[in-house]
Amino acid sequence: MIILNMKNLVRLFFIFLAAVAVFVFYKSYGLSMLFLLVVGLLALKFVPVLVLPIAIIVIMVHFTGDFSFIADSIVAIFLVIPCSMIAYPVFERLVNSIQKKK
Description:
4 helices; 0% strand
């Protein structure tokens, strides 16, 4: 015969509610957001300074749907640097010619 006191029963109920909440969150937002939720809560508990960068990453993951924004950012940086080095003299000439006309 299993005898449960009220304290263990209430604790078991809240564990069940937490498991259901995690499952619903996983089904709604996916594994990456569940992972970031856990990382964010751990950061909030142990390293509160990291909450803002994690929140920015969460926003980026939410809008892109996955962690692909990291690769997209790296590719964009590698494309922007050479393009800006090429475009700078062109814009400098353009600005100088506009200033000379005035």
